[in-house]
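seq as requested:
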Amino acid sequence: MKSRLEPEYTTEYDAWQQQPSKTTTGALLRKVEPVISNALRSYGNVQASPTLRSRARRLAVDAFSSYDPARGSLRSHLLSRLQRLRRVAGQERQIIRVPEQVTLDQMRTGEAAAELEDRLGRQPSDAELADYTGLSVRRLGHIRRGLQPVAEGTLAQAVSAEQSSYDPAIRAPVPTNDIGAAEFIYDDLDPVNQFILERTLGLHGHPRMPAVAIAKELRLTPGAVSHRMRQIQQQLDELEDVGGI
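C-alpha cells:
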C-alpha cells in the first residue's frame, strides 16, 4: 500500500525507524516542532508551560511508534494523539487559579523589572523593584507565590562544590535556617547583596538559585558573588553572636 507520509518528514522518519535513538528521535521531533506548537495552541488554549510542552513532546514520541504510513499522514496522526493535551492543560488550569489582581500585578512587576534591568545593567533587587512600583516587598512575594509557591532554604545549601571550585579559598557559609534573621539584615544590604540574599535563600517567593546562576543574572563573576555571600554570612553570624532577633 502506498505510503502517505509527507515528503518533508521522510528523511527524519526513515532514519528514526531504521535506528531509533536519542539522535534520530531528536531530529524527528525538531522536524515536527511546528505541528507540536500548533497542537499546544489549539488544545492547550493557554501559553504553553514548560510542563505542558514537555508532555507534548513525549506524546509525539509515543505517536511515532504507533504511526502507520499506509493509514494516513504523520501530521494528522500527531494531531490526533496530541489532543490529550486538552486534559493536561485543563488540569494545569485547575491547579493554577490566579486572582485577577495578582495577574495584573505580575504583568506590572514584570515590565518594571525589565525597565530596571535596562537602566541598571543587572537584575534589580526586590527593594529596588518595590521602590519603583510602589508595591511592598511583602506584596511582591505574594504576587510570585500566586503562581509558584516555593520553599525557603538555607544559605549553605545554595553553595555547591561546583560553585566553590571557582576559588579554592572559599569556605561554604555557615548554615542558617532563620529566615527572620535574613529579613532583619535585608534592608541594611546594598541592592546587589539584597538580590543575592533573595535568590540564595528563596526570599519573597523567589526560587532558590545557585551562585553561578545568580552571577549570570547580576553579570558578575561567580567568585565575586561568592565573596559577597561571605560578607552576607558575616552579618548573619554577627547577628547570631549578639543573640539574634
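The chain has two domains: 7-95, 100-241.
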